[in-house]
Amino acid sequence: MSEVAAPDGEVAPAAPPEPEQRHGAPVSRSRGQVVLHPTRDTYLAVVDALQDEGFNLCSDLTCVDHLTYGAGRLVPDGVVVERFELVVNLTSLRRRERVRLRVQVPESDPTVPSLFARYPGTEAMEREVFDMFGIVFTDHPDLSRILMPEDWEGHPLRKDDGVGRIPVQFKGTGARVEPNR
Amino acid sequence: MTITPDTSTDVGGEADEQRTVDETDVTVMDPYATYEGRQEMRSRSEISATELLRESGAVLRLSEAAAAELSASTAGSEDETMIINMGPQHPSTHGVLRLMLELKGEEVLRTKPIIGYLHTGMEKTAEELTYLQGTTNTTRMDYLSPMFNELVFALATEELLGITDEMPPRATWIRMFMCELNRIASHLLFFATNGMDMASTTSMIFGIRERDSLLRFFEQASGLRMNHNYIRVGGVAADLPDDWHGTVTAILDSLERKLVEHDELFSGQPIWHGRSQGVGVIGAEEAVALAATGPTLRATGVPWDLRRDEPYLAYDEVDFDVIVGTHGDTFDRYSVRMNEIRESIRIARQCIEAMPAGDWRIQDKKVTPPPRARIDESMEALIHHFKIFTEGFRVPEGEVYVAVESPRGELGCYLVSDGSAKPYRMHIRGPSFVNIQTLPHLMKGGLMADAVAVISSIDPVMGEVDR
Predict the structure, then answer these.
(1) pLDDT-derived band of residue B1, with 50, 70 and 90 as boundaries?
(2) CATH 1.10.645.10 is right for the domain spanning B122-442
(3) CA dist B243 → B213, B221, B223, B231 (Å)
(4) pTM here?
């Protein structure tokens, strides 16, 4: 945790090819904001380390589907890009500091461990990501759809889920409208 | 309110491997019952100890074993309790919030908010709109504080464009000024509805009346009472109207007098105290763990206000206090908001004093349209105008998260640009969406009659919860 001391995070460049690291995760900067890139395996460990550091508020947890815009994404060397990217914003109230985590999640196995045990406030946010992107959070207490109806098919914020092509379905009327895909 | 069928059935959920549903248990659904499958509150025997604990309002973790033991001791038998449904069409649920409550007599044992009834896919819509149109979309999310929604989207886009430093001071101050007026209007509506939920029609009429004077000013400035689309990328839509000093000073003066009246009528009144003090209590640690922000967090005594702690616009140049409470109950949340109105009046008065002259939008023809007069004389201006309104302006690739302090808490915008004229992904972190998670904790052990007061003390706006 020695790099942490530098407030601007402008850690002295060690050897030229060595990317900046924080808790074992490569660090990049986006418009001056600190972004960590843990893998799915190191995700919980990095979150734990950040929580110990004082990041006690999980402000936001969301996801981006990089189906049609993958290549141009700015990630540090060594990060393998995948279709989905889980984006977690953590805040330290005491240090008035924010840090963002971007975790690559492959399309073939969209599962990520839940942060519920660490930040209970992520409960609704993870349900929303599950609902909108189909990312499954392991160890989540109640992973059900939150905004869409329970019997909805598909995950609306995925890029391959069209806009305005699915007729609204009313439940309990007896008649079913078939999805017109 | 309807009593839902006791048996719980299940329509396909993706991740239901862990659960075992007894096939014989599944009964034929009442076709008139509203039914949302796994989203609904289920009986204690069907859910995991963790979920049970969460619905009972436990925030800081216990082990599964400890949770099971605790729930067994507090539950009583299933026939002593009743799961009832409140909303989505209940007058006190602030839109289409639906709560399922497990009751033992009058006492609330478990609470589960069920949301999504106002979901219109605004984040998906945002991917189809240009950055110029984006604010028309976000302004409709939290319809009680539209200025903040416009502001956060505009700030995020400007951050990606890299034009934050070029913003003319007048634009920044107008934004701050309008946002503070909007905060007053929003808190006044909270005052109105919170009073109404505690059966005080006087506060309803007072709050709405005072708020209306501000809405009339917004109409003068932007042309609309709500959903203004006034703050846009690159500045604001128009300069403040003529004689805005006089109009706003008169509104603020009268408001200050009215606030004293309101205090006499409500803040010191024994009935009001009885209904709200010690009701819906949450501690600082729990509020932070649940990511609650805004007055909900500050009422617990945590002095966290983005205007002071992460200053944006020109908040570091104005003088104001961050209001905190002590007990984290319904009364504290009420008084935090009432005193924030006074602080907002202070800020608005400083804005009137210090309002700089000059441009009210950035003079970058790639971002803001040229003045109408220029179009008649300059071909280039006509082209810029045409380009901005047909295909919009391109925003450099990148991603950014910007947060502002809305009347409800931290309003964040996560914006990803792929270099085109439309956002690749736009996510709004709605404070109501997150704050609503504190409801199970606030309701636990309280009375059914206090439930409505507790809901309105969180001040959720369903447009923002469901987006």
Answers:
(1) very low
(2) yes
(3) 15, 11, 16, 20
(4) 0.84
